[in-house]
Amino acid sequence: MANAGTRIIVVTAPERLEQAWIERLGAEEGIAQVERVGVLGAGLDLVQQLRPDIVIVDRELQESEQFIRQIFTSLPLTLCIAVVSTPDTTTLRRLVTAGARDVLPRPLQLAELLESIRTAMATEADRRSRAIVSSGPSMSSARGRLVVVTSPKGGAGTTTVTTNLAVALRQISAGRILLADFCLQFGDVGVQLNLWSKYTMHDLLARADEIDDAMIAPVVQTHSSGLQVLFAPQTPEAIGDITAEQIEVLLDRLLERYDYVIADTWSFLDEIVETLLRRADEILVVTTPEVPSLKNVKRFLEYVQREVELRGQITLVLNRFPSVDGVSLDDVKQHLRYPIGANIPSEGRLVTHSVNRGIPVVISHPQSWVGQSLIKLAARIAGERVNTISLSPEQERANDKTAGSRRRGLFGFVRRD
User: Fold this and answer.
1) β-bridge mates for residue 178, sequence order
2) Nearest partner of 411 among 362, 352, 371, judged by Cα
3) How confident is the model over 150-195, as pLDDT tens digits?
4) Any residues with CB less than 8 A from the CB of 301 and at least 6 apart, and which?
5) 158-173 vs 369-381: helix axis angle to the nearest 10?
6) Cα 108 to chain center, whole Å?
7) What is the CA radius of gyration of the chain?
8) Are 348 and 324 in contact (CB under 8 A)?
């Protein structure tokens, strides 16, 4: 490559994150860092924060044009290369006018991309030698978003949804994501991620008024995906001295430091859960297509809308649907009288195998129907406009016919430290 230590961000669609050329690009000599992002908003934030040498934009034409123009006008030292399905004259003119240095056709060939990068970097060599726009990225003062995943019926699969959602959100947004286990008596987040820590949330709550970076660092654990995890207390009796006020302080400290805090909760509406619901920017209520679960969800919705002062929106997630002998979608809608925001299909053997191994299904089987559904749910949380209702496995599995082997799973990018 032309310059050693080239830093690259690839902004693509969620279903194209595992393209082989992206993984191979990260292994090329002279490439110091490759990030993959599947959400436009997160991609723009990451570009503005890291100020890479190259941004490769592999989206639809109108999205690419707008995205490249934003980068060109705000970070002129960052070079953009667009990838399109049909590089005709009109497309070339639009993208070059927006600020693209080159436009390459899909499917992308790595050799052609490397030559494009080499040429663009050589052309800009003089400018790059004297272009230090700033002393480095500054910490953002923006508050992170709190996403609470809950269910009023035990056994609905809330923790499985939560862990996969958090991992997928980390992968498609490349942001700072924390998964916090608020199932305070018997939390299972660690089991599903194959992680363990001698430190837990209780160590922070015991000194809530003193929480700072030095306290948080040894308590949270980092998953192989880059997700950070805060564990529930190790003994059930430890929750006896935890108060809602301590939870409020903890949330404040975490939301100052993370882009997203994903909270897994238990099925009891106590003051801790109500505090989380009240503070949430997004509430995912998980149910299954069985009468007892639907009955509890209906009562839950009626209660929280009447008694809890919510600031965020509620999204119903229908887990294990469609499934054999489950209640139909029409009957679910009629009973709950509330829109279904997403469904996670029933693929019991696959999910059970994933849970027992401690490897989230979005990593072990990202192209499965359930894996794709969870990834789309994460994309929706991150602000991407995607259809999160799918009743056909074929449409999910046909997203990328060239998937090939899964040497590093769906998300094989080089993570930032």
Assistant:
1) 228, 261
2) 362
3) 999 999 999 999 999 999 999 998 889 999 999 988 889 999 999 9
4) 285, 314, 336, 338
5) 70
6) 25
7) 22
8) no
